[in-house]
Amino acid sequence: MKTKITELLGIEYPIIQGGMAWVAEHKLAAAVSNAGGLGLIGAASAPPEIVREEARKCRELTDKPFGVNIMLLNPNADEVAKMVVEEGVKVVTTGAGSPSKYMSMWKEAGVVVIPVVASVAMAKMMERAGADAVVAEGMESGGHIGSTTTMALLPQVVDAVSIPVIGAGGIGDGRGFAAAYMLGAEAVQMGTRFVVANESIVHENYKNKVVKASDVDSEVTGLSTGHPVRCLRNKMTREYLKLEKEGAEFMELEKLTLGTLRNAVIDGDVVNGTVMAGQIAGLIKKQQSCKEMIEEIMTEAEALLGNGGRR
Ligand code: TUI
Question: Ligand 1: which residue has its CA nearest to atom 1?
């Protein structure tokens, strides 16, 4: 399936893997790229040298294009932004803020820049700043989110900008792909489905929690602090939401979440840890290779789209 995004990125299928903190390391990114999608390394809060190593290891595992996601709340974001240029990374996506100040450096280096946005205003700003495409991410997504759903956000962003738009948030299978395509997306980005991939290094406890989740098992913490984060309900979210309701201070809430994504992803603490996942977790029932996932999604989507988008 050819779209503006497969052409722009030189990839086979219009499927991008989200740049998830701790989860999106080189093995997952390389597996997605080798399967014909675009794999991303999530720089999250890692120091630049670690991200550099990850990019180098990814290049050893694939000769296909891959990218790096830069989380703009990262205090090391400036250094990571320079590092991607030094390493010749071809694609950069950004999250949780505006990458405007890096844009000229990246464009001069020939990097394809794809900011993740959660609003029409931000999408327009990114187009003006020179972005090659944007990911319109709805609040169904796991992790740090905006406040508009994918169904409402995606077509409004598509109408507001001339650059290609990638849909994200709540997409987990071929039906979701086809729906996003119908709303004008040139590709989709998925996170939660890839969390449970065979090639994902995520702890088995975390994968099991995603596979067992139902449609109503996620919560949004941090609405009061300005950093809303969607994750699966557990002891941590119950305590967090209770404290938040009681009007707890920012620092008291921070104590509950600091370092706890790592505890969940790496150590498998799904009780006190932060188990970031999207609302689509309820749809994700099996662990497969990235190749199987991508082929299954594309086969289903192409059948639906070839049939006027009806099941
Ligand atoms: O960035 C994400 N998802 C993330 S980042 C992350 S790490 C983290 N952990 C705890 C607290 C905060 C972050 C986990 N998941 N998705 C992309 C995304 N970007 N979603 C929403 C946005 C966004 C929000 C505001 C993009 C731009 C924006 O602009 C605000 C501004 O600067 O004007």
Answer: 95
pLDDT on residue 1: 87
**Is residue 257 a contact partner of residue 251, using CB atoms and an 8 Å limit?**
no
Judge whether 261 lies within some domain.
yes
Distance 288 CA to ligand 1 centre (A): 28
Q: What percent of the chain has pLDDT above 90?
A: 98
Which residues, judged by CB distance below 6 Å to any ligand atom, belong to the binding site of ligand 1?
Answer: 21, 44, 71, 73, 95-98, 116-118, 122, 137, 143-146, 227, 229
Residue among 83, 120, 119, 123 nearest 99 (CA): 123
Ligand 1 centre and the CA of 72: distance in Å? 8
Q: Alpha carbon of 291 to those of 39, 197, 288: distances in Å?
A: 12, 9, 8
Instruction: Please write the tens of the pLDDT for every residue from 135-173.
Output: 999 999 999 999 999 999 999 999 999 999 999 999 999
Q: Both 228 and 79 in a single domain?
A: no
**110 & 33 share domain:** yes
Q: Would you say residue 207 lies in a domain?
A: no
